[in-house]
Amino acid sequence: MTTQALAIADNLARLQERLQAAARRAGRTQPVTLVGVTKGVPPERIADAYSAGLRHFGENRIQEFEAKRASLELPEATWHMVGHVQTNKARRAAELFARVDTVDSVRLAEKLAGAAGALNRKLPVLLQVHLGDEATKHGAQPGELAALAEQAGRLEGLTVEGLMAIPPFLEPAERARPFYRRLRELAEELDRVRIPGVAMRELSMGMSHDFEVAVEEGATQVRIGTALFGPRPGAP
Q1: Of 95, 96, 136, 226, which has the fewest Cβ atoms less than 10 A away?
Q2: What pLDDT is attached to residue 196?
Q3: What domains does the chain contain, in order, with CATH numbers?
């Protein structure tokens, strides 16, 4: 095993320990899924994480994933689309990914549903919520979420399984807690309404610097890049 592979395996083991500890602090018993975010990560590092036991991976860019696919033979991997999807790329996203975690509009939901239907499959999706006031972030506003959920839930090609958010980058991590609590509360509100075709079983929130806080607030999936793979080549 190479030095790089050993480092990734060690990182993964430490992250799993921290996830379990955060869940215990919150009195939770259900496992939390670690999604390894592979933006800018070369195929050999991804393969090292797979060999170490990771099975969920997330890509931000369709074209980048397409370029990597030929070099990846990971038969049990589940690939999440965790970046913004333009409507003109919805068909390709439905073809490439097992899940799309960033549905932020009815139009995108309709495009994904049509593409999934043409493939004779149901595409699991999460609805992305815009928390904070950053103009560069995508997502439905909290006040728009119920309408988006209702319309997405009617689409034959989709299975709406929960919510996702990317709050502002804040340090210390404790400052992110109100955002994660708000996402959990939004999920609970939707769950009480019991919208047909919509389940709130998944909350995708938390990244390398604040995932423990997110787990304490109810995350069922966390998206980890740097803490698992190390700094991306060329990143500051």
Answers
A1: 136
A2: 93
A3: 3-229 (3.20.20.10)
